[in-house]
Amino acid sequence: MIGFLRGKIEFLTADQVTVSVGGVGLEAGVPTRLAAGLSAGQEIVLYTVMLVREDDISLYGFGSPEEKNLFRLLISVSGVGPKVALGVLSAFAGAEVKKAIAAEDAATLTRAPGIGLKTARRLILELKGKLEDEPADAAAGEGLPGAAGSGDEAMESLLALGFARLEARHALNKVQSEAGEMSSAEQIQRALRLLARGK
Questions:
Q1: In the list 10, 32, 114, 123, which could disulfide-bond 84, CB 3.0-4.6 Å?
Q2: Best CA proximity match to 32, nearest among 16, 50, 9, 49
Q3: Which domains are present in the chain?
Q4: Distance of CA 156 to the CA centre of its chain
Q5: How many other C-beta atoms are found inside a 10 Å radius of the C-beta of residue 119?
Q6: Cα atoms in the 13 Å half-sphere on the side-chain side of 152
Q7: What are the helix and strand counts (H, E) for the chain?
Q8: What's the pLDDT score for residue 134?
Q9: 45-83: b or e for each residue (b if 16 or more CB lie within 10 Å)?
């Protein structure tokens, strides 16, 4: 739903930042490696992943589109939730994670909090092929939009949530045909309801 944040850091902890965007403070969990280099009052761009569950909406932020994509891959592995994935990206730089997986180095991965040998082996098994097949332009479209319209922003947000372009476009077309002028946030909310119902 939210593909990136650009604003001033209002509050900062070891693993969370609150960014002021248009007068609204948005909280995002971040790797401790990233938080360690930040300070309150600093202008920042965070590439974000929003996870929507029945009882929770959480936002996670990263310093680059590549790290954001790696977070998505990590949480796609069975038994690896966002907290564990953040732990991995707190313990290692993205390139180090990819190197360990490519080398099938489970011992290195177990140095991350929450990663035992069994989970490390599962990460290697499930991600090695995906990392090798990751397209060079995986981060395309993750850059900061300029004067994009609300429809473009809504589309990028749905893609950031992992929906296929075709199904996202179908849902947005339906939303836009049923209700006139809407903000990007309203379009996203309505489209998510349609997509959740499989329409």
A1: 114
A2: 16
A3: 4-62 (2.40.50.140), 65-133 (1.10.150.20), 150-196 (1.10.8)
A4: 12
A5: 20
A6: 9
A7: 9, 5
A8: 53
A9: ebbbbbbeeeeeeebbbbbebbbbbbbbbbbebeebeee
Residue 84 contacts by C-beta under 8 Å, 6 or more apart in sequence?
Answer: 74, 112, 113, 114, 115, 119
- For residue 12, what is the enclosing H or E element? strand 4-12
Mean pLDDT of 4-13: 91
Model confidence over 44-98: pLDDT tens digits? 999 999 998 878 889 999 999 999 999 999 999 988 999 999 999 999 998 899 9
Size of the chain in residues: 199
Which pair of tokens denotes residue 29? Answer: 């969990």
Cα dist from 9 to 12, 58, 83, whole Å: 7, 18, 22
1-10, 74-83, 140-149, range with greatest mean pLDDT: 74-83
* Dihedral sign from CA coordinates of 60, 48, 149, 195: negative
Say how far apart CA 9 and CA 29 lie, in whole Å. Answer: 13
